[in-house]
Amino acid sequence: MSNQSQDPDHFDTLDRDLHRLSHLETATQYVARPMVAPGISLAFIVIAGIAAGLFYGQAPINLVVVAAAVFGAYMALNIGANDVANNMGPAVGANALTMGGAIAIAAVFESAGALLAGGDVVSTISKGIISPDAMDTTRVFIWAMMAALISAALWVNLATWIGAPVSTTHSVVGGVMGAGIAAAGFAAVNWPTMGAIAASWVISPVLGGVVAAGFLWFIKARIIYRDDKIAAARVWVPVLIGIMTGAFSAYLALKGLKRIVKIDMSTALMIGLALGVIAWLVTIPLIRRQSQGLENRNKSLKVLFGVPLVISAALLSFAHGANDVANAVGPLAAIVHATAEGGISAKVAIPHWVMVIGALGISFGLFLFGPKLIRMVGSQITKLNPMRAYCVALSAAITVIIASWLGLPVSSTHIAVGGVFGVGFFREWDAERRLRKSAETRPAEARIAPEERRRRKLVRRSHFMTVIAAWVITVPAAAVMSALIFYILNAIVT
Q1: Any domain includes 20
Q2: Of 339, 336, 344, 319, which Cα lies nearest the Cα of 268?
Q3: Euclidean distance between the first and the last CA atom of the chain, given in angstroms as a whole number
Q4: Which of 3, 300, 429, 464 has the fewest other C-beta atoms within 10 Å?
Q5: Is residue 60 reached through a cis peptide bond, with omega within 30 degrees of 0 on the bond before it?
């Protein structure tokens, strides 16, 4: 053995080099980790394009359809990253579900809703915003739908990046409107329809917030503020579960089963009433058994609301998959139909492979990018527990039923986030009311200063303003982006 290999300094140098190497491996893994999600997303988008070429069914492979499928997959990923978080955020924020459990449940139920109960026919002009007759040629129509798809996906991606939950349906609406104006002028837009959609910016969150606050007031008055909370819970928790079951049954009968059978509002309400009463009767002994041995404190009540909250979150995901996925893949379905038939139709059938791209894209988007928005909705706007989160879930189902009955266009995203805001602002009002009531009996020196009371606000105003601003500019921003993209696409092709 050489003298150099026996030198202790030589071994010290080797140890230092190996230590640096281990640090290099750790640093490489740390840098590569953020690239995993985009890498998987890119692979899914490429596979979607390949699948479109294979399943389109006409030879030769149409590159326009392949490109539309690529952007449709990109849109579906963004829906999973942004829109689905509104259904699962409250349950995660209330610690009724872990992040992994929420993602697994949402992925299964969103996909099931899209594939089993999703609409098999969609309005290609997104709820009659643009008249099909306004488009001069099929080529112009195809590029308009492509521009709408790209702009909606880009806008939802940007909103997710800044942490703002927005309506993907409104993004598509804005994209269709902008491309329609660029292709056929302002006269092509159905402005009364756009006015109704603009009204939903206010109606959806306000109605959702009022309903959620109303249920929280009911739970506080009838259960939380009672001397014997457990006895009160045994009476009222089954009633609330019955209301939840009835609301979701009516909601799914009205909105989620249209592929199987057409159900009108009165029939849906009767189905909801019947199943709600059954659920109320069934859960009375279950809640009584579950509440045995619980201490007379608020923490015990969280146990009773945990399972119903998880079920409601799953049902919300199913309903969202059944209703919103079709709107998201509508432009893609319109492009496929126009390319295959060589003409424009007001309503088109959605091919199964298009729905599969939408369903899988939502699941991948939720898994890869959803936790950021789930955390924001669930814990960063206001603090949620199972009772408050349950009020948000109830509000989402009941508000859609009320809006459908009144014929009002609403956004499920705005309703859910509005419900979170409603719960938070009600907590502020209730805390202030109780503070004023107790201050009447306190000495002046023990009262809380106004500055301190403002600091204790229970809704983060920064998140509130960010979300409201994102909602207001969603349609205009998507419209402007869509018009620019349409001009670019048209210039490239011609």
Answers
A1: no
A2: 319
A3: 77
A4: 3
A5: yes
Q: Is residue 18 part of a domain?
A: no
pLDDT of residue 24: 46
Q: Please indicate, yes or no, if residue 44 is contained in any of the structural domains.
A: yes
Q: Is residue 429 assigned to a domain?
A: yes
Distant-in-sequence, close-in-space partners of 174: CB < 8 Å, separation ≥ 6: 151, 152, 155, 474, 475, 476, 477, 478, 479, 482
pLDDT digits 0-9 by tens, 298-353:
888 888 888 888 888 888 888 777 767 766 678 888 888 888 877 777 677 778 88
Q: How is residue 203 written in tokens? A: 């109606």
Q: How far is CA 41 from CA 101, 301, 362, 484, in A?
A: 21, 41, 11, 26
Q: 365 is in which domain, residue-wise? A: 36-493
Count of structural domains, the chain: 1
As a 3-state breakdown, the chain gives helix, strand, coil percent values, each rounded to 5, of 80, 0, 20
Task: Work out whether the CA dihedral 460, 465, 466, 471 comes out positive or negative.
Answer: positive
Sign of CA dihedral 245, 247, 253, 257: negative
Residue 16 has pLDDT above 70, yes or no: no
d(CA 283, CA 243): 12
Q: What kind and span of H or E run contains 122?
A: strand 121-123
Two structure tokens written together for 427: 């907590």
Of 400, 212, 206, which Cα lies nearest the Cα of 319? Answer: 400
